[in-house]
Amino acid sequence: MTHEIFLLNISGQDKPGLTSGLTNVLAHYGAKVLDIGQANIHDTLSLGFLFEIESGPKSAAVLKDLLFKAYELGVKAKFTPISSENYEKWVGNQGKDRYIITILGEKLTAEQISKVTEVISDKNLNIDSIKRLTGRLSLTKKEDYPRASIQLSIRGKIDDKREFTKKFMQISHDLDVDIAFQEDNIYRRNRRLVCFDMDSTLIQAEVIDKLAELAGVGDEVKAITEAAMQGEIDFNESFIRRMKLLEGLSEDVLHDVAINLPITKGARRLIDTLKKYGFKTAILSGGFTYFGNYLQKELGIDYVYANELEIKNGKLTGNYIGAIVDGDKKAEYLQDIANKEGIDINQTIAVGDGANDLPMLSLAGLGIAFHAKPKVRNNAQSAISSIGLDGVLYLLGYHDRYIDLIE
């Protein structure tokens, strides 16, 4: 007994009962569905069935009845015969490497998408699916926090991933858009721990600079901070120099600084969602435990590792207690937390902006440079520079409808 394979493409206005009506016809003739897929844009449907049917009377009858059912439902039907050789070649492609490309921005333009897909095409890669992750945008209502994201699932062999990423980075720079490139593996779909730098990542401030302003040494400390974040001087050296300049500052100012910390846009939305879906979270900071502990209570963070200020007689001594939390220490804490929670390092995410974050960004399964310095952005796996911290959720593949369920 021989069989034939057909691809049935349905297009038209979406309505209830389409899939049910068409599959009832296929079921009546004993057809075997080999693949099925659907997309819906502005209530306009594109639906596909790849099916196998017994040759002869059944084959002719099922095509006729499908055409009639499509007419009855008010949609268009197109049939394409598929040879067994073509089908087997298609099946053979399913073992190819798979990747996820996420495009993020306040809004997305045709030019941005065109340039990204051009790189994909030039490398002879297939786009299996394109999914919008953000909600629909109104053309008349002004958004308080505009954001747009789409996710492309691609398949094929990439010989030089560094070159591939470099091209995306150039597009990102030229067209003001974020492009994240990840392997689509089991770890990507099972992230369980997210670790944040604090200053200029979880909050939009460098706390040590604020303390320095109150101590009357703002300009001196800011210059040292910037040089350290750019990677121009060693973090430990910069930390010791800045601490000495804070000597004599009253302990009373710490509370006022803490309660006025500017939490980064999207941070609450991100952390609330992570908590809802069972993630562990941590602050790994070259800043101070006093402020990390405040944010831990405010946001519901699980772990805090930072530097402890030495305070005597109600004043900062200019010294610190314990080891300095530098870049290597952050990476060490990331690994320690993962071990404690029984989480594979590939299931972790690290987010930071400064040079001292690079060790943890490199160690984590996904390292994200957030509104970062050029050196950090150029050396991280992914970067977010166009929207808030909740952009991390789109790199995880979350759609707004799953995020906003908890708000």
TrEMBL record:
Sequence ranges assigned to domain ACT in this UniProt record: 7-85
Catalytic-site annotation from UniProt: D197 (nucleophile), D199 (proton donor)
Pathway annotation: Amino-acid biosynthesis; L-serine biosynthesis; L-serine from 3-phospho-D-glycerate: step 3/3
GO terms, biological process: L-serine biosynthetic process
Obligatory cofactor(s): Mg(2+)
Domain of life: Bacteria
Short name of any one Pfam family annotated for the protein: ACT_PSP_2
EC number of the protein: 3.1.3.3
An MF annotation (GO) of this entry: L-phosphoserine phosphatase activity
Record's keyword annotation contains Metal-binding: yes
UniProt KW keywords: Amino-acid biosynthesis, Hydrolase, Magnesium, Metal-binding, Serine biosynthesis
GO cellular component, one term: cytoplasm
Coiled coil: none
Catalytic activity: O-phospho-D-serine + H2O = D-serine + phosphate; O-phospho-L-serine + H2O = L-serine + phosphate
Top-level EC class: hydrolase
Family of the protein in this entry: Belongs to the HAD-like hydrolase superfamily. SerB family.
Name of the protein in question: Phosphoserine phosphatase
Organism: Gelidibacter salicanalis
